[in-house]
C-alpha cells in the first residue's frame, strides 16, 4: 500500500496547490479557521468522555496530521468527535485513562482489519434517502450543540452573535480573499478585548495544554481479562468511526464532485487512531462540521488544509493558549450555526419535493433524522434508516409478484407464469395462488419472467409441488435462468418436508 501526500486528482493535488499562491493561501487560511473551530469542540468532547481537555486536543492534533498523509479523502477533517466520546465515556468512568488508550489502539487495529476486508464496499447499500437523513440530522445536531452557549448567558452574547452572523452572510458576497469565519473570529475577539466585554470565551471551556504531547504506552495488564473489558468498546468505536468517516467522505465527494478511495480512508482512520493512542489521545474520526467549514465555507480541496489544521491547533493551544482563550464563544457559535444551515438539505423538505417523492423515501429520511437526533449517535440513525429502507423496498417488490394462468395446451395440462422477483417476502404468498383442487393432472410453472433469490423461494416451490403431489398431480418447473436453476437444483428437496 503506497502512501502519498497527493490528492486523488491532479487538479486538487498538493503539488498544484503549492505552485499556486492563491490556492495555497486558501488552504492555509482554511486550516487556521478549522483549528480555531476545533478547540472548543475538542474540549467539549473531552468533558463528555470524562478526560482532561488535553486528551481531546492532542487527539485532534494527531488525528488531523496523520489522516492528512494516510487518508483517502483529501480536505476531510478528522479529530476527536462526540460519537466516539459517547462510546468510550462509560469505560473511562469505570476503568480510567489507561484502559481508554488501550481501547483506542485496539479500535484502530480493528479499523485497519475491517477496511482491508472490504467494509467500505458496504457503502453501496446505503440509500440516498438515508444519506439525506444523515446530512439533515448532522445539521440539526450541530445546531443543537450550540444551544448551551446561547442559554443563560450575558445579553452581550446575542449582539456579538448577530454581528458575526452578518459578517458570515454578507462578507463572502463582497470578497473571498479572506475566509469570513476568520474575519468574524478576529473582529469579535478584538472587540471583546478592547471593550472588556464580559462574555464566555474559549478559556472558560477548559484548561489548555502548556506542553507538547509525548509518546506513551497504556499501563494495563496484557491479558484476556483486559481484552474482555476493552474489546466491546473498541469494536463499537471502530464501527462508529468507520461509518461516520465513510459517510462524511461520500458527502465531501458530492460537494467537491470528486471521487475518493474509501478503503484507504478506512484503514487511514485506523492508522490515525493508533498514532493518537500512542500519544495519549482519546481517538476520533471524521468531523462533519469542521469538514464543511474546510470544504464548503473556506473552499479547501487538498491535504494541506487538513495537515495545517492539526499543526495550527497545536501551535494555538500550546504556544498561543493565552490569546486563544480570549476568543468569544459567540464567534465560534456563529460559525457553527452557518455550517448547520449550509449542511442541511433544504431541498429535501421543500413542499414540492415532498409531493413528488415516494412516501417510503420520505419515511426513511425522517426515521434516520429522528433516531440520530434522539440518540445523538449517527451510527444508530444510519443503521435504523437502512433497515427501514430495506423493509420498505422488500414490501414494495413483494407486491410486484404475480401468478397468471397463461395457457391450457390440452385438457390435462395448465401453464402458470410467475412474474416478479422471488424472495422471502414475495414467495411466502406464492403458495396460495394456485388452484390445487381443480387444476388438471399436469401443471407447468413458467419462471422465465422471474428470478429465484433465496432458500425461502425454493422451499415454497417444494411446498407447491408437494401439495399437488398429494392430490396425484405432476408439477414441472421451467424457464429458470442459470443462477436460479443452480440454486433450485442445489436446495430443492433438502430444506424440510415441504410444508
From TrEMBL:
Topology class, membrane: Multi-pass membrane protein
Domain STAS: 411-499
Pfam short name (any one): STAS
PROSITE patterns listed in its UniProt record: STAS (PS50801)
Localization terms from the record: Membrane
UniProt KW DNA-binding keyword: no
Keywords for the protein's UniProt record, in alphabetical order: Membrane, Transmembrane, Transmembrane helix
GO cellular component, one term: membrane
Segments crossing the lipid bilayer: 28-49, 55-71, 99-117, 129-147, 153-171, 178-199, 224-243, 311-344, 364-393
Name of the protein described by the UniProt record: Putative SulP family transporter
Species of provenance: Rhodococcus erythropolis (strain PR4 / NBRC 100887)
Amino acid at each position: 500500500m503506497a502512501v502519498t501526500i497527493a490528492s486523488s486528482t491532479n487538479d486538487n493535488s498538493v503539488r498544484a496547490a503549492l505552485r499556486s499562491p492563491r490556492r495555497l493561501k486558501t488552504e492555509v487560511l482554511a486550516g487556521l479557521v478549522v483549528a480555531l473551530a476545533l478547540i472548543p469542540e475538542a474540549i467539549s468532547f473531552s468533558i463528555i468522555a470524562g478526560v482532561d481537555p488535553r486528551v481531546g486536543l492532542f487527539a485532534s492534533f494527531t488525528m488531523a496530521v496523520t489522516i492528512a498523509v494516510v487518508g483517502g479523502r483529501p480536505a476531510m477533517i478528522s479529530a476527536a468527535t462526540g460519537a466516539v466520546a459517547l462510546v468510550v465515556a462509560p469505560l473511562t468512568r469505570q476503568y480510567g485513562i489507561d484502559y481508554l488508550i488501550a481501547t483506542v489502539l485496539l479500535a484502530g487495529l480493528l479499523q485497519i482489519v475491517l477496511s482491508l476486508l472490504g467494509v467500505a464496499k458496504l457503502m453501496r447499500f446505503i440509500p440516498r434517502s438515508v444519506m439525506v437523513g444523515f446530512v439533515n440530522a448532522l445539521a440539526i445536531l450541530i445546531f443543537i450543540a450550540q444551544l448551551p452557549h446561547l442559554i443563560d448567558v450575558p445579553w452581550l452574547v446575542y449582539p456579538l452573535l448577530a454581528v458575526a452572523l452578518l459578517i458570515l452572510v454578507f462578507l463572502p458576497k463582497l470578497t473571498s480573499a479572506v475566509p469570513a469565519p476568520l474575519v468574524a473570529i478576529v473582529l469579535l475577539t478584538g472587540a471583546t478585548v478592547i471593550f472588556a466585554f464580559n462574555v464566555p470565551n474559549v478559556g472558560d471551556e477548559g484548561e489548555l495544554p502548556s506542553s507538547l504531547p509525548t509518546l506513551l504506552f497504556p499501563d494495563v495488564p496484557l491479558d484476556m481479562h483486559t481484552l474482555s473489558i476493552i474489546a466491546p468498546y473498541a469494536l463499537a468505536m471502530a464501527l462508529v468511526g468507520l461509518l461516520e468517516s465513510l459517510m462524511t467522505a461520500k458527502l465531501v465527494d458530492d460537494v467537491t464532485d470528486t471521487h475518493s478511495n474509501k478503503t484507504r480512508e478506512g484503514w487511514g482512520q485506523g492508522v490515525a487512531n493508533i498514532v493518537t493512542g500512542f500519544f495519549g489521545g482519546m481517538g476520533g474520526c471524521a468531523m462533519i462540521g469542521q469538514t464543511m467549514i474546510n470544504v464548503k465555507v473556506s473552499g479547501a480541496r487538498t491535504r494541506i488544509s487538513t495537515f495545517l489544521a492539526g499543526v495550527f491547533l497545536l501551535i494555538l493551544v500550546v504556544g498561543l493558549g493565552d490569546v486563544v482563550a480570549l476568543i468569544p464563544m459567540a464567534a465560534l457559535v456563529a460559525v457553527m450555526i452557518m455550517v448547520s444551515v449550509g449542511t442541511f438539505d433544504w431541498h429535501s423538505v421543500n413542499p414540492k419535493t415532498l409531493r413528488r417523492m415516494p412516501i417510503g423515501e420520505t419515511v426513511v429520511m425522517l426515521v434516520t433524522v429522528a433516531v440520530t437526533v434522539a440518540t445523538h449517535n449517527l451510527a444508530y440513525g444510519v443503521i435504523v434508516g437502512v433497515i427501514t429502507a430495506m423493509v420498505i423496498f422488500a414490501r414494495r417488490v413483494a407486491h410486484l409478484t404475480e401468478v397468471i394462468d397463461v395457457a391450457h395446451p390440452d385438457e390435462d395440462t395448465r401453464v402458470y407464469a410467475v412474474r416478479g422477483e422471488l424472495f422471502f417476502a414475495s414467495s411466502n404468498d406464492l403458495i396460495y395462488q394456485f388452484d390445487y383442487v381443480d387444476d388438471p393432472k399436469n401443471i407447468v410453472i413458467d419462471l422465465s419472467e422471474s428470478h429465484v433469490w433465496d432458500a425461502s423461494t425454493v422451499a415454497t416451490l417444494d411446498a407447491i409441488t408437494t401439495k399437488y403431489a398429494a392430490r396425484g398431480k405432476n408439477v414441472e418447473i421451467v424457464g429458470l435462468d442459470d443462477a436460479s436453476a443452480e440454486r433450485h437444483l442445489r436446495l430443492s428437496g433438502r430444506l424440510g418436508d415441504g410444508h
